[in-house]
Amino acid sequence: MAPLFYIFAVLAILAALSVVLQRTPVYSALSLIVVLCSLAVVYLLLGAEFLAVIQVIIYAGAIMVLFVLVIMLLNARQETPSDRSRLARWLGAPLLLVFLGELLFAVWERFPAATTRAAALPDAGPRAVGALLFRSYVLPFEVTSILILVAVLGAVVLAKKRL
Amino acid sequence: MITVQADDLVRILPQAILAGFAILVMVFEPFLPAARKTLLGWFSLFGVVAAGAATIRTSFSPGLAFGNSISADRFSLFFICLFLLVAALTLLGSFHSLERENINHGEFYALLLMATVGMCFMAASTELIMIFLGLEISSLATYVLAGFKRQDALSNEASLKYFLLGSFATAFFLYGIAVVYGLTGTTNLLVLSAQLGRSGEFRPGAVFAWVALLLMFVGLAFKVSTVPFHVWTPDVYQGAPAPVTAFLSVGPKAAAFAVLLRIFLGAFASAGSGVFWVFWASAILTMCLGNLAALLQSNVKRLLAYSAIAHAGYVLVGIAAGRGEGTAPVLFYLTVYALMNVGAFLLVAHLAGTGERWTRIEDFTGLGYQRPAVAACLAAFMLSLAGFPTTAGFFAKFYIFRAAVHSGLIGLTIVAVLTSVVSVYYYFRLIVVMYMREGKAEAASASLPWALRVALAISVVGIFYLGLYPTDFLLLTNLAAVPLP
């Protein structure tokens, strides 16, 4: 299990870097698919088959199709590097490293390697997820519908030719 | 595991009614001719009043709902009432201005109601996931509202800027929630507070907990526009349609403060002095930069935007004063701030004329002679924003400063007093221009529509009532300042 985890974890990190560093939007989108699929494998290794499948179908499938479609519709080319914010260029990378170091240190301190072992996940099948969604989290589930309604309404307002 | 009971539903009744009215507005919208859309506005106003009535009903059965994820306590009911008041005032002030700008569409009212729903959920939730959902609902709705003048480049810019920076901020907040969940295995503030209270000190994983708290603070700091997370504020307030600006400058801000209070003075109250210093530093930065930058503005909307930033700084002083002292003054301040800021923005929106042309300070020259009543109104708002005695702004600041002194924050109080002296200069500039300069005010446009008059009357009467007889309302805020979360 462990070697597989490391392979896909490293793959996810590399692909995530590629999402940010690529200058062509389509390449970024394709890299994002790799990230999402590697995460799905990690879920699988943790014993959450249902989540892994959902991850592939919804994120890597449906949402990424939308991404790629929008990129194609907009005919987005290679982005031109802007040279406006020098502050961001000089401060960005060091601050990022500080944040990364902080997170790594925190994980290190919180979960020392000696005490950490892979815990058997509780049942994460469709039945368990469904029970959580419709019992404990029924209110967030319902309120999400309002959120989606607002998003639809907003899209109509901003994009429709004549209101 | 929970089962939904009647009491659960009663405790989210105001939100449910508002959402229902928003949906009804969308259903009725296609059946109304373009000239009659204001009817939908009145219908929305009726919805807000109905939600207010529902709040009274809810207050008779306080308690937790939906598996401890909603708390219908006095604190949340106070904030819900505040949001309903802001929504009602904005609606009253927007009818005419929307018609003038030719953007009187039903979607405006639906989005406004939805934004209010989101804010109510933010204030009432004791579950981080619900708070996040509320934040997203109110944010998405306000992004769109900011760009509601679709033909106007400034409005488009405002919407896009607000959207990009706002979604960046909510990502921070979500990341913070994820870290909290990773640490403690729960996102419920009540459970968190119990866990932290038991372990006495802020463990597990001190550093990690810090990362979580700071991430959540950054996410909310964007929404309340504290320095250094304020850069979007002037552009968005300037570009958005003025009634929307009135709403934006008060509603989402107050909601984010409610969440800050619940998280930092409630669940994570035992986090210790580090959190206090974060609030201390951002209060000082916000007050100084907000007030100093406001001195340089020549556009009234931008001036009010920087003044809004500065006022967020005073509220932070109240939060820094801590849980025993600070909560009630913060509630008082937010209410007063809502009254005077909504009033000021609505009035400026009306005076700005078609296309919001007259928003420079010089455009108000001589307004005091041409439109004495209107100028007096605007002067009252400015005096109150400056914190002049006999207006509510004075007592709002006074209670905050008193709480800060009681908590021993002498340095912070001195900075707050000095910066509010600075603020007098830019508020009085507008008054001086209106009353002491000869000239023909460009901004003196048509007479006030009566709906706007009602809104302004409520704000002005509120300001002077709270300025002259603050005790009753102060008792109310003391009642609402229940121990959180």
Q: Work out the count of structural domains of chain B.
A: 1
CATH class of the largest domain in chain A: Mainly Alpha
State the secondary-structure class of chain A.
Answer: mainly alpha
- Give the overall average pLDDT of chain A: 82
**Beta-strand fraction estimate of chain A:** under 5%
Element-level helix/strand string of chain B: HHHEEHHHHHHHHHHHHHHHHHH
- Under CATH, the topology of the largest domain in chain A is which? Four Helix Bundle (Hemerythrin (Met), subunit A)
The total beta strand count of chain B reads 2
Q: How big is the Rg of chain B?
A: 21 Å
Strand fraction of chain B equals under 5%
Q: Which stretches of chain B are poorly predicted, pLDDT < 50 over at least 5 residues?
A: none
In one word, what is the shape of chain A? globular
CATH architecture of the largest domain in chain A: Up-down Bundle
Count of distinct structural domains of chain A: 2
User: Main sheet of chain B?
Assistant: 2 strands, antiparallel
Structure description:
The complex is a heterodimer of chains A (163) and B (485). With 163 residues, chain A is mainly α. Chain A has six helices and no strands. Chain A folds into two domains: 1-80, NADH-ubiquinone/plastoquinone oxidoreductase chain 6, subunit NuoJ (Four Helix Bundle (Hemerythrin (Met), subunit A), Up-down Bundle), CATH 1.20.120; 125-163. Chain A has helices at residues 2-21, 25-45, 49-74, 86-110, 126-136, 138-159. Chain A is globular, with a radius of gyration of 20 Å. Chain B has one domain. A two-stranded antiparallel ribbon of chain B has the order 1-2. In chain B, strand 1 (63-65) and strand 2 form a beta hairpin. The longest helix of chain B is centred in the middle third of the chain and has 32 residues, at 153-184. Chain A binds chain B through residues 102-103, 105-107, 109-110, 131, 135-140, 143-144, 146-147, 149-151, 153-154, 156-158, 163, and chain B through 1-4, 12, 19, 23, 26, 66-67, 69-70, 105, 107, 110-111, 114, 117-118, 121, 127, 129-130, 133-134, 136-137, 140-141, 143-144, 147-148, 150, 159, 183, 204-208, 210-211.
